Amino acid sequence: MSVSIKTSEEIRKMRIAGRLTSEVLDYITPFVQPGVTTNELDKLCHDLIVDVQQAIPAPLHYAPGGHTPYPKSICTSINHQVCHGIPSDKVLKNGDIVNLDITVIKDGFHGDSSRMFYVGEPSIQARRLCEVTYQSLWRGIRVVKRGAYLGDIGHAIQSFVEPLGYSVVREFCGHGIGQRFHEEPQVLHYGRPRTGMKLETGMTFTIEPMINVGKAAIKQLGDGWTVVTKDHSLSAQYEHTILVTDSGFEVLTLSDGCPPPPLV
Ligand code: MF3
Ligand code: CO
Ligand code: CO
Question: Could you tell me the distance, in angstroms and rounded to a whole number, from the CA of residue 68 to the centre of ligand 1?
Fold first, then answer.
């Protein structure tokens, strides 16, 4: 399978799916407080997506090759969890940081976005990690335009975070997205300028850097999904779904409650 170029009608549907995805993150924000369980956050998001948005939570029963079906509607990755954390009866406590990753299917098209949330007051280290990770996502987004290369995106992220002492997770990457959750191409969060695939107008893909305070190495837990840092250092991630345009990019996963793009 090669990279799909979306038609204007498909882009119209991707904009809708993207906005709904971001609106789930807006909706859940006030509920992320000390004392809430990740199962409660999952149920709130599930019910909004299904009952109000009349859409489908893509993670539920998602089972890409070799994986056991994902059992919940959102991903909740806490502290040293890198990604794909499974909601449970675990209670969030003051000082935790948690990534909520939402993927919504509307009218056959996917939107995919995640943000970090502070549970109560974060440590200085945790806040700084989240800020740097968000800035790194936007460093990657801002190089997107027709004629740029995938390697330009990875390089923009890696060359920003590594001099600050952080590391980039290698095993997971951004991905093409559309009628399928994970399409080609793979969007690595490290790399060299002017390498890899050339970007064309109408491509849609995610950028979703996973950045660690400690070493880059990760391991997967026995539940078949949850990924954690090997050294148990804190990890953060932000994700947007992006459209390549002639002049640059369009972020498809925007809504009123989105954190503003960083100034630099
Ligand atoms: N939303 C994740 C991504 O950004 C994928 C989650 S797969 C799941 O690609 F099954 F864990 F939900
Ligand atoms: Co994604
Ligand atoms: Co995602």
Answer: 13
pLDDT, block means (10 residues), the chain with 264 residues: 94 98 99 99 99 99 95 99 98 99 99 99 98 99 98 99 98 98 98 98 99 98 98 99 97 98 92
Asked if residues 136 and 161 have their Cβ atoms less than 8 Å apart, the reply is: yes
Assess whether the C-beta atom of 208 lies below 6 angstroms from ligand 1.
yes
Centre of ligand 1 from the C-alpha of residue 205, in Å: 14
Q: Which atom of ligand 1 is nearest to the CA of 103?
A: 1
Round to whole Å and give the CA distance between 50 and 136. Answer: 32
pTM check: above 0.85: yes
